[in-house]
Amino acid sequence: MESNMALQTIQQYYTQTGLLSNAGKYAPHLEDLPEDLGELCRIVQGLMVHIFWASRYGLNLSEERKSEVQIRSIPRKLDRLFELDDHPLNQPRSLEKKLVGNCRDFSLFMVSILQHQGVPARARCGFGTYFRPNHYEDHWICEYWNSSAERWVMIDAQLDPFQCEKLKIGFDPLDLPDGAFITGGYAWRMCRSGLEDANKFGIFDMKGLWFIQGDLIRDFLALNKIEILPWDAWGYISGPQIIDADLPALDKIAELTVAGNAVFEEIRSMYQKDVRLQPAPDWQP
Questions:
Q1: Could you tell me which residues come within 8 angstroms of residue 278 by beta carbon, excluding any fewer than 6 positions away?
Q2: DSSP 11
Q3: How many other C-beta atoms can be found within 10 angstroms of the C-beta atom of residue 32?
Q4: Among candidates 138, 128, 121, which has minimal Cα distance to 223?
Q5: 108 to each of 111, 157, 163, how far by Cα in Å?
Q6: Does the pTM of the predicted model rise above 0.85?
Q7: How far is CA 166 from each of CA 80, 105, 174, rounded to the nearest angstrom?
Q8: Secondary structure of residue 151 in the 3-state scheme
Q9: Interior/surface letters 161-188, b for 16+ CB within 10 angstroms, e for the rest
Q10: How buried is 25 (Cβ within 10 angstroms: 0-12 exposed, 13-18 middle, 19+ buried)?
Q11: Largest CA distance in the chain
Q12: What pLDDT digit, counting tens, does each position of 150-164 carry?
């Protein structure tokens, strides 16, 4: 268990907004939002529609609208959101006026709001076990420090009542039970040790250890407050292949992400020292 000083340092780090979660000029729009987590999730769900769920809600997206999933940062997302509808954030948009996003974007919005409210929060990348039986689906969630319970809690801001009904969710999305979400590091270690089949991890026709490698790196970066898009790739994210020479480093990264808070300083140090973990020169928030 972390010392009080170490825990304070970790909490302070994740209370401060990151490169992508900082609302910038839109920070005043976050001022009057409620602190209740359920209400905040409903607000985020009222602002966004998931690109893969849109048709199930009855929304037919144009290619132009689908391109909104390419928007990385919260300020740029809010630029587009207010272009569509300039009402306050606590007013839900009509379906066609919602910003198009994905699980990463729902999580990033929650992280941004919670950090603005002084709550330590971070995005996590990995795999959800509640989308399809016997399958680990590529997914992002938000993790925040619950001061009353004195523990980090995972919440899935994407799961609105419609999705919960369709997926037959039997747990509280505001407190994911153990095993509901597997971080990229856990998935990597499970498959490298032979405990699980890597082909059960992925999305659509993309699966296998190479795919887990991508989520491993994305989760490591998220722990450093760099929440890249699911298809951003550089350094250790090498596409549909595994480079044997990278395995020792990848195993170490997985070890660090699984240990998490206990090795917080080492996570930060490795990010700062290893250029293959840092954004490519042409990457723009």
A1: 235, 271
A2: H
A3: 9
A4: 121
A5: 5, 10, 19
A6: yes
A7: 29, 21, 18
A8: strand
A9: eebbeeeebeeebbebeeebbbbbbbbb
A10: exposed
A11: 52
A12: 999 999 999 999 999
